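User: Predict structure, ligand N-carbamoyl-L-aspartate.
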Amino acid sequence: MSPPPHLLGIEGLSAARIERLLSLAQRFHAAAPPRSLAGKRLLVLFYEASTRTRTSFEVAARRLGAETVSVTAQSSSIEKGESLLDTVYTLSAMVIDGIVVRHASSGAPRLVAEHVDVPVINAGDGMHEHPTQALLDGFTILRHRPAIAGLKVAIIGDLLHSRVARSNLLLLSRLGAEVWLCGPRTLLPPEFAAYGPGVRLTHELEEALAGADVVMVLRIQMERMRESFFPSEAEYVARYSVTRERLRTAKPDALVMHPGPMIRGVEISAEVADSPQSVIREQVENGVLIRMAVLHDALQGAA
Ligand code: NCD
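Assistant: Predicted complex:
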């Protein structure tokens, strides 16, 4: 028996499956979605804080007719120290057809996938991957541009701790974009250059922004830092905050993106976040469509 169609990361996902998920989301956007998951039950297991990702998985599942069972770290035995696998075994006994999991440890969704026989979807694992975010970002770009190939995408900020950046880097370079990564030396791992053919690294914001078609801004992930990675917030803002003036070096119609939650005045100015170029709210809307596509794809064929 072949394994269930998990979605653990963009790594290992073929360009064909990426294209299929993107066009499925487009289909769900264009016409009323089918109730293809009627009678299915999805376990939504969140060990880390989340606003948009958890709710959008729930909304997406319900739109396709599925029932959801949500468990968060603050309202369950997870708080009492029950192990991840024990929690999954307990909840699997209630008969579920798929599991969405977010966890602070990289690799946690894979561990779950190795011990269950239903599809597992990674909703963000530590500093590793956040595949549905990269898919929704790719989808958002495609709603404004005919193709991803040939675009210059600048990803700016805390690359080191960002699972969003890692997944986007893999997805966008696989689809032919030139991806420029920009941040302070301490937050920009040199090995990222090997992630794809079109990946470039720079510490100069101006270089990353010059002629960019897409500007993706990342939050500084303080919760993942045990030490200081830059001298002060003021210094970070002075060098890397994306302001209206700095954005002028990008293409005039460059798309501005941010996965949220954003800290206005730090990595991005309020003016840029609310500008007509910003597609940040659209990213949230598209998150539901992409998660519908992912759930439909993973669960429909599953027993
Ligand atoms: C991101 C995450 O949790 O990785 N948020 C999200 O899912 N939209 C990014 C972040 O927390 O900064």
